[in-house]
Amino acid sequence: MPLDPHFAPISPWSAGLGCRCPRCGRGPLFKGFLDLAPSCSACGLDYSFADSGDGPAVFVILIGGFVVVALAFWVEMKFEPPLWVHALLWIPAILVVTLGLLRPFKGVMVALQYRNKAAEGRLDSHTP
Q1: Inside any domain, residue 1
Q2: Helix, strand or coil for residue 34?
Q3: C-alpha radius of gyration, the chain, whole number
Q4: Which UniProt keywords apply (predicted)?
Q5: The domain containing residue 112 runs over which residues?
Q6: What is the spatial distance between Cα 104 and Cα 106, in angstroms, rounded to a whole number?
Q7: Which residues, including other chains, have CB under 8 Å from residue 38's CB and lie 6 or more apart?
Q8: Total number of domains constituting the chain
Q9: Using CB atoms within 10 A of its CB, is residue 126 exposed (0-12), middle (13-18) or buried (19+)?
Q10: What is the mean pLDDT of each run of 10 residues along the chain (128 residues)?
Q11: For FRET with 32, which of 47, 64, 74, 102 sits at 20 to 30 Å CA-CA?
Q12: Alpha carbon distances (Å) from 57 to 72, 97, 109, 121, 125
């Protein structure tokens, strides 16, 4: 997973938000909605190093929750609609916000892992 000198550095933010390969910026990062492709179809980078875990979901929950709850409070204070209007507005809104942000945030986390050479912690097995 070393940064290859034959490829110009790609911003992890542009590669991640575009759901593109963190090394070349051209190949797709995902084969499904959230499933990573095995490798880049353009440069051949193996994506087996990538493990974003729950990081993207945490950021999406915090950001999406803040936006939707702030808007719900604003609508309540300004218009005082009945509860069914809140349900009609905010259930689809939270689905759109969370599902819309999850894939790009996962792409950013994978691109940052590549850029920073993040890997699983390993113990040295050297015996004196």
Answers
A1: no
A2: coil
A3: 19
A4: Membrane, Transmembrane, Transmembrane helix
A5: 12-116
A6: 5
A7: 31, 46, 47, 48
A8: 1
A9: exposed
A10: 70 95 95 95 93 92 96 97 97 96 96 89 68
A11: 64
A12: 21, 12, 11, 22, 34
